Amino acid sequence: MYVASTRSPGRTPRVSGRLPSTVFALGTVSLLTDISAEMVTAFLPVYLIYTLQLSYVQFGLLDGLYTGATAVLRLIGGFVSDRTSRPKLVALFGYGLSAVTKLVFPMAGASSVAIGGVLAVDRAGKGIRTAPRDALISLATSPDQLGAAFGVHRAMDTVGALCGPLLTFLILAQLGSAAGPVFVVSFCFAAIGVVVLLTFVREHRAKAKPSKVSLRAGLGLLRDRKFRRAAIAATLLGLVTISDAFVFVVLQKVSDIPVGVLPLLPLGTAAMFLLAAAPVGRLADRVGRWRMFFIGHVLLLVTYVTLLVPHGGFVAVAVALTAHGLFYACTDGILMAYAGGFVPAELRATGLATIQTGQALARMTSSIVFGVMLAGMTMAVAVSALVVVLVVALVAVAFLVRSS
Fold this sequence. Notes:
- By secondary structure, this protein is an all-alpha fold.
- 77% of the residues lie in helices and 0% in strands.
């Protein structure tokens, strides 16, 4: 059987009522912040590979750092949030830290070490804010609406993911590949997001004494079978999830579409994510959040298989990006909705951060390994190996969940 949701195996009660205003306020913050972040994400492959001529190994290391620098700080951010009962304040610090880095990035120049340092600080901000933000959503929302709440939040977040690459494309088309304009505009959107968080987000604190929150209590969550198997399965699947940047770079090369289209590829993923996030979240509340999370990784397998189609052109691009967007709709937010249904309120941020940390470290490892693979073998062989390993991971997770 699949892992149970909140109150019954694989299912939750029928969703009813309106979502709290906190969900929409945080959705607006994430929308603005994601415009900022995705401008950078869309710009990095062009800047690092085609402008600075970095190798795949260097790119994999930097992209892995970009993904994994959040890992340990997710735990710290979650713990401090629970310990102080001030998730909004902790989230505010994380959002502010990421905003400032957008102004520092152009100063890094062509130094991969300096670029890596700025990326680490930027992702540190994301790591600090993620668990408190998700805790704010789950604490403000009734248990039977968690899938819908996270779906709506991720849908609003994805509006930013759509706008960010488009803005980068327009800036590059009008002003060339200079880094300065991209990062100044990126900073402006991030700063507005911080103002919205400070002004409009209401804080719902857990009804528990902060003295009951400790690192020992947080780690003690791993003794719970449901929590432990969710953390292990999410980490295992994270090990076979390469970064978006690699998906887009490989897709551009194997499909033979122009390099100038590369910054626009995230739009395809984001558009499908936007369309599917809210309805998939509501569906997950009915059919089982873990089941939906597993289905999402089957869709990721479809994405990887499409990367093996040579000279597929825009048809292959459309198929890959559709499956990629649906993968995110079925996983990003759904896992937190699932865990939010059984992690105690006083340890909500810490518990969510623990699962996120394992997943982030695994994805960082995946990006680094895949970069090394691309440097040492043909692209087709590297992607084929990735497909095989993902199939093995899906089978292993199915047995893990079924036997628990």
